[in-house]
Amino acid sequence: MALEDTIRTLQELGKRKPLQGEEKRQSEEAASASREFGFTDRHSSILSNGGFAETTIKEKARGARVKDRSVMDRER
What we know:
The chain is mainly alpha-helical. 63% of the residues lie in helices and 0% in strands.
């Protein structure tokens, strides 16, 4: 998933409650992708405009590993 798509998905799905089926799977995929880009759970929560709490992001991204830290390195 591309970075822009990841952010867009987190923002769109963060507005919807409760998530079921395909939306739930998409939110887990977006949370995992954000972790792979090097975002922390806090950053991902902020990117979702608060739609997902840090603990929710952590649960959804469980098992995902950072693959590309370059996005976060540019932010510093």
